[in-house]
Specification:
189 residues; 11% strand; two-stranded antiparallel ribbon; Nucleotidyltransferase, domain 5; alpha+beta
Length: 189
């Protein structure tokens, strides 16, 4: 919601979960465009302080140009980001939630644990919303498991963090690819 006009602005929530510990990362964005999609991934890797060897995303048009049963085509920018972090992108198959069960389960839990808990609050900036999400996420990741020892955070720190790849020395720089037409007067449109 904006302070000036009181206009309600929708936000989109990026949710990621590691496969073993189910350690979650959540961040809100104003759109699902390419820049926010890549930013979400780079922020996720900074949050984990390491990169996963494999990413299993949904088949969003932002990340996957063509979904195919055997050879999905990942868009160029997403592919370059994955190469920068030395990560393989293997998109989940369409209508196959079992390809990423931990993420699917975490999305459901996050919906009630974070989003529903914040639904009656008003935020006047994306930074305010993400700060509230971060606080709830810290509690969520530290909460003890119901059926096994530890919490998402403790399992992550003790076992899974060791398996992450180190982050590259340089930050990823987002590239935007476009096809341009050169006019007879040498102007590009």
């Amino acid at each position: 919601m904006t302070k000036d006009t009181g206009e309600i602005i929708p936000a989109y929530v990026f949710v990621a979960a590691l496969s073993y510990s189910q350690y979650a990362y959540v961040e809100a964005f104003l759109s699902q465009d390419q820049e926010n999609w890549i930013t979400a991934h780079t922020n996720m890797y900074r949050f984990y302080d390491g990169a996963t060897r494999i990413l299993v995303p949904d088949n969003l048009k932002t990340g996957v140009e063509k979904s195919s049963w055997f050879t999905p085509i990942v868009n160029r920018t997403y592919h370059e980001m994955a190469e920068h972090f030395d990560t393989a992108v293997i998109p989940a198959r369409v209508k196959k939630p079992k390809d990423k069960p931990n993420a699917e389960g975490t999305v459901g839990i996050i919906s009630t644990w974070i989003i529903a808990a914040l639904r009656n609050q008003k935020f006047f900036s994306l930074a305010e919303l993400n700060q509230a999400i971060k606080e709830r996420l810290q509690i969520f990741n530290s909460k003890p498991f119901q059926k096994k020892e530890g919490s998402r955070l403790s399992v992550f720190l003790e076992e899974e963090k060791l398996m992450l790849l180190p982050l590259p020395a340089t930050s990823y720089e987002l590239a935007t690819w476009k096809i341009a037409t050169v006019q007879f007067n040498y102007h590009i449109i």
